[in-house]
Amino acid sequence: MAGESAEIRVMLVDDHAIERQGVRALLEAQPDIRVVAEAGDGLEALPLVGSSQPDVVVTETIMPRMNGLELAGQLLRRYPDLKMLVLTRNDREDCVLRLVQAGVNGYLLKTVDQSDLLAAIRSVFHGGRVLQPTALEAVLDDYLQRVREPAAQEYAVELTAREREVLKLIAEGNTNQDIAGLLCLSRKTVETHRSNIMDKLDLHKVTDLVKYAIRDGLVGLD
Description:
By secondary structure, the chain is α/β, with parallel strands linked by helices. It has helices at residues 17-28, 42-52, 68-78, 93-102, 114-125, 133-148, 161-171, 176-183, 187-201, 206-215, and strands at residues 8-13, 33-39, 56-59, 83-88, 106-109, 130-131.
């Protein structure tokens, strides 16, 4: 998809239209960048990539129907030469790691300066990789923590760390789709975690899960 000309063809994927429009205005003011398509979520974006032929897809991670991780997985399998740059408000370490592992070329938070965003788009177009310092710190911190943690926790018979995280988000009122976006997981994976949690705890109502989460200190009463 990377064009022979110097023009960078960009597709924007974000469920917040006003933010998407702001980024579009910034990009279209650049002589070497053209926005060729927009989408409100990953599901809407999939068919547009084939028709609009972008060089770089700039995407949010937290979106309805299909989040950024699911979109990256599908697009990079279909179009291995496509460049993907994440522009998100999600600074969770596990989300950064999953998207980097999925093959995205850059990860920026929406607090980034406009000049840095433009530089990142140009960099990934030319084959570079870009991680905002806070995102890079998350990757390094997570890696070091995994290296240092003993493997003994694998023998725990209670909920895993991921299951406790999912349970906390369930108790806070998040839907499966919300949780998928927040944790950069597929909705199917979240559904599997929910089912495993219910089976392990022998609790099959959301209200009972909430009560358990409160007793366990995962969430407060306020």
